[in-house]
Amino acid sequence: MIIVLRLLSPGSGPVSRQLRHAWSCYSTTALAEPSTPSVKTAIPGPKSDALRKDLDIIQNTDLVQFFVDYDRSVGNYIVDVDGNVLLDLFTQIASIPLGYNHPRIMKALTDPANLSQFANRPALGMFPPAEFGKNLSETLLSVAPPGLNQVQTMACGACSIENALKGAFMAYRRRERGGSPPTQQEIDTCLKNTPPGCPKLSVLSFNNAFHGRTMGALALTHTKWAHKLDFPSPDWPIASFPYLKYPLEEFVEENKAEETRCLAEVEDKIASAKRSGQPVACVAVEPMQCEGGDHYASPQFFQGLQDICQKNGIAFLLDEVQTGAGATGKFWLHEHFHLRDPPNLVTFAKKMLTGGFYYTPDMRPTEGGRIFNTWIGDPSKVVLLKAVLDVIRDESLLEKTKDTGNYMLKTLMEAQSQYPNVLSRARGLGSLAAVDFPDGTSRDKMVNKLRSQGVHVGACGTSTMRLRATLTLERKHVDVFADRLHAALRDM
């Protein structure tokens, strides 16, 4: 199917008449999505290998898997430089909402009315474009988590966490001061990295958590040693995240006991931190631990966690970087939890195309420059987000994601039933799905086998294979995955 995109008229704007005419004559042809994978070479192939050797001269390429021909990648299929066509169920580490080269994204990119948004990247904290507030209202605020109407853009997930933590620390100290301004001693000592200006506060995180690789976010990250080794980190409390049994409905009592244990540990860690003179100002948690192994917890666990935070005057931060933007059939995973009150902070990035965080009014800085960097986001990404949100609404993608996700989970459960010695703990919610293997070696073998058969998947935790589909994935794509999964399982 060939789609020709006709550009909207740019109207009267800063673009010259000649340039407007050139853009109005421009069109782009969107390739049809392949109907099936096609593998021609080993992956990585010879062209990928050559490109990697060239790149390795100037930077470390140990994690490079293959080089991509993004011009030829379409929809749910990614094409490498050697011409291999793969069904992509990893999607740039869960960050592609609509698939590759989606027509509505291309239209937004080539619309002359959006040209200045891409040509000029402003320092948003000082010189935002005239339409920025309106664009935020029509995009980020239109899908804000229930009860939240404050938002701050950022460039990526890690810097979203960093600055959300700053919001939590500032709010905690404002409460301690009782609304009084900082003392001169605080102002002087903060420039020397000493108390009272730099107070001894902490953030509670969970084992197997991943919140990013910058230094503050890294202090909350506890997955792989490569993320942490050689880097100084504050001695902040780490609690156990529930390790549940699946299917959840068959292990209700066991899982309830596990979550009760973990909540009691959280309370104990908070009390211990206070006694040690380093009180907890914020609890940071993923609604589902992704990088750490796709670990779930029940709504009751998160309700209890929020209760603990509120009882102790602690900010409750939900990190929705990987789980937001409709990935679970609701726009935010924590909407499944039916929390009594909104979380204090909700971070986002990946499928949202821009980083940032929502926050309650008490988390809002009271002075300019406290949450700030040169760009604090990129208005062009908000333009693209508008196109994404329009497609989500126009094509009812939340409902479709829920349906396709249930179909994917059924596929994993059937495979698990047929191969119980290989697969276990199949689980999923919308486009987020996972299954465990006996060990990391067998998991990695499966990932490689699937890739050789034209399906690109990811890994997480110690032995988990994870699937991170787009919101446009359909049942026909799941059938392609299922055929190749069973073929690989028979080989194993």
Automatic annotation (TrEMBL):
It catalyses: 4-aminobutanoate + 2-oxoglutarate = succinate semialdehyde + L-glutamate. Keywords: Aminotransferase, Pyridoxal phosphate, Transferase. GO terms for molecular function: 4-aminobutyrate:2-oxoglutarate transaminase activity; pyridoxal phosphate binding. The keyword Zinc does not apply. Its cofactor is pyridoxal 5'-phosphate. InterPro entries: Aminotrans_3, PyrdxlP-dep_Trfase, PyrdxlP-dep_Trfase_major, PyrdxlP-dep_Trfase_small. Coiled coil: none annotated. GO terms for cellular component: mitochondrion. One of its GO terms (biological process) is gamma-aminobutyric acid catabolic process. Belongs to the class-III pyridoxal-phosphate-dependent aminotransferase family. PANTHER family: 4-AMINOBUTYRATE AMINOTRANSFERASE, MITOCHONDRIAL, AMINOTRANSFERASE. This is 4-aminobutyrate aminotransferase, mitochondrial. It comes from Elysia marginata. The lineage of its organism: Eukaryota, Metazoa, Spiralia, Lophotrochozoa, Mollusca.
